[in-house]
Design brief:
Helices cover 36% and strands 24% of the residues. It has 232 residues and is of the alpha/beta class. It folds into 2 domains: 114 residues, Periplasmic binding protein-like II (D-Maltodextrin-Binding Protein, domain 2, 3-Layer(aba) Sandwich); 111 residues, D-Maltodextrin-Binding Protein, domain 2, CATH 3.40.190.10. Strand 1, helix 1 and strand 2 form a beta-alpha-beta unit. The protein starts with a strand and ends with a strand. This is Molybdate transport system substrate-binding protein.
Length: 232
């Protein structure tokens, strides 16, 4: 069985796929790409059985008839975190608190930063919208450095190409050369729901539905949380 996903969920999906195989379900061969690229490939007719993307992207594919609307299943929630380059090489660990006290403090951090890394995915789109809503696009825009598709913001931080990075927590945890400050505060939090669906071109739709149901079952929530996602 073939599946395609965005980069943000590749690690948790790989562990879920292994757990599904141990539970007697079909093996899932997972291909991960940038979310925009993955959606484009599905829309172009790439033969896959399951699709895992941000909920909004899956809804669009469902509207266009590329995935089965009735199978769209919310699986995990990912929160955006802020991070800095780390002089050491230890894998990043996330503190329990927020990166900033509130939106005002986050605005000050964006103003103070020289280069700000952000992602091509839904979290990046939400960040740009938030900065625009604050009326800070002219001030902050020239500092923004968008990570290329398929390249995590953590890589930009580790290379010292940016001095502040904003991306989904699951993409930052465990990456070398990164110090996570925490998730964004409640008054400017950016949360993304990732979902799965059975592709319209699925060869074994019943088996694909069974795997998708397993991925969303309470019995795998421990796996979900171990990758810094929250189950839906």
């Amino acid at each position: 069985m073939k599946a395609i996903s965005s980069m943000a969920t590749r690690h948790v999906l790989a562990d879920l796929a292994r757990a599904a195989t141990k539970a007697g379900l079909p093996r899932v061969d997972l291909l991960s790409a940038g979310g925009v690229d993955a959606a484009r490939r599905v829309a172009a007719g790439e033969p896959v059985d399951l699709v895992f993307l941000a909920r909004k992207a899956l809804d669009t594919l469902a509207d266009e008839g590329h995935v089965r609307r009735e199978t769209v299943t919310d699986l995990v929630v990912s929160s955006v975190a802020a991070a800095l380059p780390d002089a050491g090489e230890n894998s990043a660990v996330c503190p329990s608190g927020a990166a900033f006290d509130d939106a005002t403090e986050m605005q000050a951090a964006l103003t103070a930063a020289e280069r700000i890394g952000y992602s091509t995915g839904p979290s990046g789109t939400s960040l740009l919208a938030m900065i625009s809503g604050w009326g800070m696009s002219d001030e902050i825009g020239p500092k923004l450095v968008q990570a290329p598709p398929g390249i995590p913001v953590a890589t930009l931080l580790a290379r010292r190409e940016v001095d502040l990075g904003l991306q989904q927590l699951s993409e930052l945890v465990g990456q070398p050369g990164v110090r996570i400050m925490g998730v964004l505060p409640a008054d400017c939090a950016i949360d993304t729901v990732f979902a799965g669906a059975v592709a319209r071109r699925a060869l074994g739709s019943d088996e694909a539905r069974a795997v998708l149901a397993f991925f969303g079952s309470p019995g795998v929530h421990e796996i979900t949380r171990s990758h810094s996602f929250q189950p839906v």
